[in-house]
Q: What sequence folds into this?
């Protein structure tokens, strides 16, 4: 198959499936899941075929399709097929397929199952659009569509309040970032005279105003701040956990939130040194803050969500510090599998707890404990994925995280100022914190005694193949063996100029320290956890409230001042008219009868229309236009 | 076939027919109206299909001498009956065809005084079409004024409780605006001559067909050097001649060379501002917008649809056709002023929409916000900006028609428009919810819908324009965020959550077939023009290009 046909089929299959599922409707709920999986299977096959045929390190195919012309510029719907595209196609399709398999069991009781699978396919379509496109303009279009599908999926259970609130928040937070992204696209087009990513990567930037180029890079980065939940717009991601758990796995861990990273990889040539420093600082803040918040969560999904925030921050740092996006992209790749695995494990646990039939918060880790015996498969898989998250040896995470660390040390060694050492050591601190909260999470869930008195532990079981198979596969993809094969096939070596000789030791020391302190605090304090305020209340009072009160103020201004001034003007006219009338009555004495007659006739006319004798007016209007026509004829 | 004349006169004749038909045919009035509107739409589609997209000039020209009056020393009055369309007016003619048909179908719910209603509705159709195809300022003004009358009665007689106030307000606002335009029209008339007729008058040619560019150049040269006496000047209202400054009598106020000024401001600039204000009322631009929410709230649904869908666009069309085409120098000079007024409209309208409790008012303010993008795009004087502005007008016509229909659906059931009186409508009205979601997301500028293209290119034009500072578009993007905020918030409050309706909950039922037909076709159009922007850009591109590089 030609690359044109392949890319179009890969892009359009999920859209087609989504439309079919939608049009079949609720009556075919049961069919929708299988249709969706069939579509995902086809797409995965096509993606692998595509990868096998076209993946070489140097090859870069651009396919252009004319869309429309405006002025003298052609807007082109174009595909860019390179190593990143092909790898992302694989990641998105694999995770989507596994998540949909998982959803078959997890969601099977839902009466709106068709809607769920239709939205999911809509999401895959939009995500693939971002991955495949060569044009920033088209990327923005798909970028927004991804936001829409995320909105629809977070708010999937629309009858309760919290998911709706979270969905709206996610969309608005993303919109704020996207406004910056949009301006970045405008500025890029203004400066570089193109919005093609291929053309941008071949440009010579020496002729371009560096201040504006920095601004372009930072504005484009705004899109990443929104979508990849970077500080200060990160607060939507933990809330997004109100959506169904498989959605959290696919969208809010593995793929959509990685779109920001993917975009940064794409626009990497535009980023100037100044822009990179700002990006690195924001990434560092996000990484440490996410890890910090992850420590204090009691909700199983919220811990993972903050951990995602933290890992995304790590990837952003990696992009900012490296000469190309490979290191960040590598971690994006491994993270997609182990984080999706962790979320699906969490989903499986929640599902198993729900199956007991009791009503309680099935996501609260304080109500878990000792589940290792009851759910051994989940326990093993969760531990493997967690180990990959921590970066323990023999996992894919170890390799990709260490690459980032090496890049950071390389950067620090290349620069001649001391403060650049902040970045690698911040990463080491982040690694330590990750180990800390991860080990505590495992201990909370799987070790010790079962802490929920409502439920008899013997009723908890794991038996479903649809739940277990995706989890097992994702765990295998995160560890030596399958994981090694995947990283060998899909990732490339990351060149570093200089290395710090203590890098490996410091990393393992950090992980060890995190594990040890995590275990010790668990021994000492158990599940006790202090409450930490998030930034939401701060944002609420500063931004939301002020926006609303400003809106209210403008509303008052509009009705009291703008509108009333017109009314007063009208009243002034009436008063003026009365003065004239009085003048007329008192001074122009000669024609009182005449003026009375005029006033009277005006009164009669207005009376008529007050009484609603529209026919009369209508006839008058017609006489007018008729006379006009007659006038015209002669 | 004189399609443009048919577009104008067919509804007029049908309107007469409705007036004359005996009482027992009352139930056919709505069908007559729908059939006429279908024909109108069909005719505009024929125009669309046969339009030469490679040409920037006026097409489907129909011309007749109408009034020729020798006025002694004031020269000769020449008012022509000229109809033609170009890339700027064709999208709006098409939009009128679509929206008027939807409005006619929506008018089925009108029960009282049907004869008057449908008569006026057809009259309105005729006047709007006339506005968009007239190429003579006098003719345009005639239609422009003529639109007011049916609109005034449609709001004032079939409207809500405060209809008297709203209709008078609408009338006075628009009338004041059109007076400003009238003043400029007269001044323009005094200033400009028709070179062809003048050549005829001077005896340079014996009939109009002999008028070559050389002859016209010769006349213009003679005019410049003052060789044509006032008696021989044939004055004109023709847009085509008005937009060429060489046709202006050198010593006239509006000529570029006379240097006439008022306290240092050239009269040309003042004339531009007057026309601008006149059309800004119609658009409407902040702070001249307060008639709009009142008119919308009181107007019956189909009238709201027409008002938001088409009438507002005459403001934008007037900017392009009159203010910008005749005074390009002033447009350049005042770009920043126009741009910032556009951005103020965007932000101000959006903030107001955010604090509205009445759904229809909220949508009215969102119209103010969306039409601000038209101003911004126009102000940029770039290809992206002006094409985007025209696209935005078209798109807003489709989407606002849809939004007002949606409000009408709810209002016709419960007679309540307060946002907080509804919750969880999705449970009882799934189809209505899906279509509202489409309309809301399309309006907040989601890609794949027409609103995205219009907003994107208006903003891009504003950003890339050399006349406007970059931060202006930056501020305007705040409008995108606020737009998402008020639409999503309203959607969440009314449609999500547990079902609860404060008034007449038993009357809640999903869409009827008629409502579905209207809403689904508009949704399809919004999608079509969102995915295939070339459908309109191919039409507007050449015209706008020629306007920018004359």
A:
């Amino acid at each position: 198959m030609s690359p044109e046909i392949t890319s179009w089929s890969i892009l359009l299959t999920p859209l087609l499936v989504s439309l079919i599922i939608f049009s079949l409707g609720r009556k075919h709920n049961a069919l929708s899941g299988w249709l969706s999986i069939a579509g995902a299977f086809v797409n995965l096959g096509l993606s692998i075929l595509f990868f096998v045929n076209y993946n070489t390190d140097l090859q870069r195919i651009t396919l252009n399709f004319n869309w429309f012309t405006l002025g003298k510029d052609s807007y082109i719907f174009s595909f860019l097929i390179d190593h990143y595209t092909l790898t992302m196609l694989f990641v998105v399709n694999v995770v989507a397929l596994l998540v949909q398999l998982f959803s078959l069991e997890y969601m099977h009781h839902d009466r709106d199952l068709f809607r769920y699978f239709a939205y999911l396919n809509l999401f895959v379509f939009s995500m693939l659009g971002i991955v495949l496109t060569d044009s920033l303009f088209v990327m923005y279009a798909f970028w927004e569509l991804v936001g829409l599908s995320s909105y629809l999926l977070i708010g999937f259970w629309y009858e309760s309040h919290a998911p709706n609130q979270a969905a709206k928040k996610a969309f608005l937070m993303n919109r704020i970032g996207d406004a910056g992204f949009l301006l970045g696209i405008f500025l890029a087009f203004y400066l570089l005279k193109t919005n093609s990513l291929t053309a941008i990567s071949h440009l010579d930037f020496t002729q371009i105003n560096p201040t504006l180029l920095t601004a372009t890079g930072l504005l484009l980065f705004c899109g990443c701040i929104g979508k990849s939940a970077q500080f200060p717009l990160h607060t939507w991601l933990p809330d997004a956990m109100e959506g169904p758990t498989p959605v959290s796995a696919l969208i809010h861990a593995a793929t959509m939130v990685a779109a920001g990273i993917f975009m940064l990889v794409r626009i990497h040539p535009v980023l100037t040194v100044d822009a990179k420093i700002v990006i690195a600082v924001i990434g560092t803040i996000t990484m440490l803050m996410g890890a910090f918040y992850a420590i204090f969560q009691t909700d199983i999904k919220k811990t993972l969500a903050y951990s995602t925030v933290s890992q995304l921050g790590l990837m952003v740092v990696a992009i900012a510090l490296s000469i190309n996006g490979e290191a960040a992209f590598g971690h994006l790749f491994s993270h997609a599998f182990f984080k999706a695995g962790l979320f699906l494990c969490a989903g499986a646990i929640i599902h198993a707890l729900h199956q007991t039939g009791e009503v309680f918060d099935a996501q609260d880790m304080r109500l878990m404990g000792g589940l290792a015996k009851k759910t051994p498969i989940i326990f093993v898989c969760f531990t493997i994925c967690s180990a990959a998250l921590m970066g323990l040896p023999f996992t894919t995470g170890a390799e990709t995280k260490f690459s980032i660390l090496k890049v950071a040390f390389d950067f620090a060694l290349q620069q001649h100022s001391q403060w650049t050492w902040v970045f690698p050591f911040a990463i080491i601190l982040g690694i330590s914190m990750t180990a800390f909260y991860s080990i505590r999470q495992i201990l909370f869930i799987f070790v010790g005694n079962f802490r929920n008195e409502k439920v008899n532990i013997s009723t908890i079981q794991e038996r479903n193949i649809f739940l277990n198979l995706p989890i097992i596969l994702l765990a295998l993809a995160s560890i030596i063996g399958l994981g090694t094969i995947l990283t060998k096939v899909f990732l490339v070596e990351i060149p570093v100029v200089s290395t710090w000789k203590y890098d490996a030791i410091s990393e393992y020391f950090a992980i060890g320290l995190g594990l040890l302190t995590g275990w010790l605090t668990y021994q000492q304090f158990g599940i006790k956890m202090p409450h930490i305020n998030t930034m939401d209340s701060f944002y609420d009072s500063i931004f939301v409230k002020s926006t609303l009160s400003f809106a209210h103020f403008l509303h008052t201004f509009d009705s009291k001042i703008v509108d009333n001034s017109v009314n007063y003007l009208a009243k002034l006219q009436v008063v003026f008219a009365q003065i004239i009338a009085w003048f007329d009555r008192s001074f122009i004495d000669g024609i009182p009868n005449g003026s009375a007659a005029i006033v009277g006739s005006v009164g009669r006319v207005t009376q008529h229309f007050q009484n609603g004798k529209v026919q009369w007016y209508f006839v008058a209007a017609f006489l007018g236009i008729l006379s006009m026509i007659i006038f015209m004829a002669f | 076939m004189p399609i443009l004349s048919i577009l104008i006169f067919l509804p007029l004749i049908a309107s007469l027919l409705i007036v004359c038909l005996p009482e027992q045919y009352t139930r056919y009035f709505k069908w007559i109206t729908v059939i006429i509107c279908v024909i109108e739409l069909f005719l505009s589609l024929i125009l669309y299909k046969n339009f030469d997209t490679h040409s920037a000039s006026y097409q489907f020209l129909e011309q007749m001498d109408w009034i020729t009056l020798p006025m002694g020393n004031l020269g000769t009055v020449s008012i022509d009956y000229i109809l033609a369309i170009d890339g700027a007016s064709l999208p709006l003619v098409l939009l009128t065809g679509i929206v008027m048909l939807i409005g006619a179908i929506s008018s089925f719910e009108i029960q009282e005084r049907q004869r008057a209603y449908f008569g006026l509705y057809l009259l309105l159709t005729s006047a709007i079409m006339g506005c968009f195809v007239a190429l003579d300022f006098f003719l345009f003004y005639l239609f422009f004024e003529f639109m007011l009358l049916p609109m005034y009665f449609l709001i004032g007689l079939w409207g809500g409780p405060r209809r008297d106030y709203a209709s008078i307000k609408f009338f006075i606002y628009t009338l004041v605006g059109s007076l400003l335009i009238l003043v400029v029209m007269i001044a323009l008339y005094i200033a400009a001559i028709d070179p062809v007729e003048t050549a005829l008058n001077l005896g340079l040619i014996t009939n109009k067909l002999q008028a070559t560019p050389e002859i016209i150049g010769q006349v213009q040269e003679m005019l410049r050097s003052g060789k044509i006496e006032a008696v021989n000047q044939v004055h004109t209202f023709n847009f085509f001649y008005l937009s060429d400054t060489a046709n202006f009598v050198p010593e006239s106020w509006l000529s570029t060379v006379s240097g006439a000024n008022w306290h240092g401001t050239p009269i040309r600039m003042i004339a531009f501002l007057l026309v601008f204000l006149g059309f800004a009322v119609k658009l409407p631009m902040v702070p001249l917008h307060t008639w709009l929410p009142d008119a919308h709230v009181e107007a019956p649904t189909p009238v709201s649809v027409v008002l938001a869908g088409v009438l507002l666009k005459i403001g934008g069309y007037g900017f392009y056709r009159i203010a910008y085409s005749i005074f390009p120098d002033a447009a350049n000079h005042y770009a920043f002023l126009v741009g910032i007024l556009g951005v103020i409209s965007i932000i101000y309208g959006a903030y107001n929409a955010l604090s509205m409790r009445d759904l229809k008012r909220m949508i009215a303010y969102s119209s103010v916000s969306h039409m601000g993008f038209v101003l911004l795009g126009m102000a940029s004087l770039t290809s992206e900006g002006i094409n985007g502005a025209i696209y935005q007008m078209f798109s807003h016509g489709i989407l606002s028609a849809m939004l007002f229909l949606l409000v009408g659906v709810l209002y016709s059931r419960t007679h309540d428009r307060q946002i907080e009186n509804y919750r969880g409508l999705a449970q009882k009205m799934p189809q209505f919810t899906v279509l509202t979601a489409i309309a809301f997301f399309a309006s907040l500028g989601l890609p794949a819908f027409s609103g995205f293209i219009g907003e994107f290119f208006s903003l891009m034009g504003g950003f890339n324009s050399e006349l406007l500072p970059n931060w202006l578009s930056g501020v305007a993007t705040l409008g995108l965020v606020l737009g998402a905020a008020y639409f999503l918030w309203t959607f969440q409050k009314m449609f999500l959550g547990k079902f609860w309706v404060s008034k007449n909950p038993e009357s809640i039922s999903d869409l009827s077939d008629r409502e579905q037909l209207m809403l689904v076709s508009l949704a399809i159009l919004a999608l079509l023009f969102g995915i295939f922007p070339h459908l309109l850009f191919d039409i507007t591109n050449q015209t706008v290009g020629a306007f920018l590089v004359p």
Notes: The two ends of chain A are 72 Å apart (CA to CA). Strands of chain A lie at 61-70, 73-81. Chain A has a mean pLDDT of 84.
